[in-house]
Amino acid sequence: MGVLSLLLRVGIGGPPMLQDDSRKSGKQNCDGTNPPFDLLDLRSSGAHQSVILVADDEALIRNLVTLLMQQEGHLVLSAANGHEGLELSRQYPGSIELVITDVQMPRLNGTDLCAHLLEERPGIRVLVMSGADMSEIVSQNVDLPFLPKPFDPEALKARVRAILAAPVQPPMHLLPSDIRP
Fold first, then answer.
1. Which of 25, 56, 122, 126 has the most CB atoms at less than 10 Å from its CB?
2. Residues 98-142: pLDDT tens digits?
């Protein structure tokens, strides 16, 4: 599995593009990377267990989670914040089985990202992470699977396997924070 980089084409319109930094092709950009390809190409990019959207504003955590999930055989869509995650989800034409997100992020926090995704993609599974204590999650009246940071890589893998193996629950309805009572 390779590394996928999200390229948002700000100001020029069009959908976000992903760049597969591991593809071996004859064409390369001037910086040595491969040219971006459309999200539609991902559906036929080979066998994978599940599609997972990872949203975390901490690049180190995001890259670690992405790598661990790729090692488990998943196709990973990676976003630097909730807004990018939502846009990436809207552009991806296939099924996304799981979103792994940080709770506290700029532009659109993880809880609000989950609220939008659960509305737009009923049946998507969710795992939220945070370096804050569990009371932060409880205070938002959110009953979502939670993984505290820092986490052991094996604990993350086991948690993801358990979430994906569990039956799909009836759609959960969360209210984005801007309309929560």
1. 56
2. 999 999 898 899 989 999 999 999 999 999 998 876 666 656 646
Tokens of 28: 């390369």
Q: Locate the DSSP E strands across 50-171.
A: 51-55, 75-79, 98-102, 125-130, 146-148
Q: Spell out the alpha helix ranges (H) of 7-101.
A: 59-71, 82-91
d(C-alpha 165, C-alpha 147), whole Å: 17
For the chain, domain boundaries: 4-22+30-167
Beta-bridge partner residues of 127: 100
Question: What is the CATH topology of the domain spanning 4-22+30-167?
Answer: Rossmann fold (3.40.50)
Strands 51-55 and 75-79: parallel
Q: Report pLDDT digits (tens) over 22-67.
A: 443 444 444 444 444 455 455 445 567 899 999 999 999 999 999 9
DSSP per-residue codes, 103-124:
SS-SSS-HHHHHHHHHHHSTT-
Q: How far does CA 175 lie from the centroid of its chain?
A: 19
**How many other C-beta atoms can be found within 10 angstroms of the C-beta atom of residue 66?**
21
What does residue 125 show for φ and ψ, rounded to 5 degrees?
A: -95, 155
